[in-house]
Amino acid sequence: MNAKVPPKAPMARLDRLLANLGYGSRREVGGLVARRQVMLDGEVVKDVGAKIPIVADLPERMKISGKPVDPPAPLTLIMHKPLDVVCSHREAGRSVYELLPARWRARMPALSSIGRLDKDTTGLLLITDDGPFLHRVISPRANVAKRYVATLDRPLEGTEAEVFAAGTLMLEGETDPLAPAVLEPLGPKQARLTITEGRYHQVRRMFAAVGNHVTALHRDRIGGLDLPPDLEPGDWRILTGGEQASLFA
Description:
Shape: elongated
CATH superfamily of the largest domain: Pseudouridine synthase
Strand content: 25-35%
Radius of gyration: 22 Å
Structural class: alpha+beta
């Protein structure tokens, strides 16, 4: 365990670190140590109280039962959300968190989606345990746009782009008009819509307000980040630093 560690790297007890990563209770982590299943920098860790540096390359340095340890917090994932899964820990039905390793449901801090896509909406979803990053993305001050492709029940009338761009459209049951949005027709019954707010079922309600109905909805961009073309529905990976920066480009 002699690899160089950044001088200001935060440290954590091994048992607390692995428990927070979902590897079991602190007692169960002690069992892993007793069975010589924890290695750091090529050496067996024998002390559950050993202080471990929480650094980005920890998965390259530490192995649990022969496999790289899960990435420590802060962790942000990009996922291609499929149909028929929900984004809430509490909502009934299969959730996006069930697409991740089972032990990740016990991570502390917990993973949460950055905004939600409803059960019937597919596409780009971000999941994180980084609270400041989450709030930065969803903050109205950040003005991070979200882009959707909507398939419609009836053909566009040709006036929707002007209505959505005006900044005067009111949704049913609300008293504040929507911020201007950009609509790009893609076909008679399909359009790309870019919004900067995140009101409840906003895209569906916007089309309902102009007399149409969304039959399929897919989010393909957040800020300057596009859904990677090689990410199939249900697939996910860790978001890179460059991709995080592109959100605010």
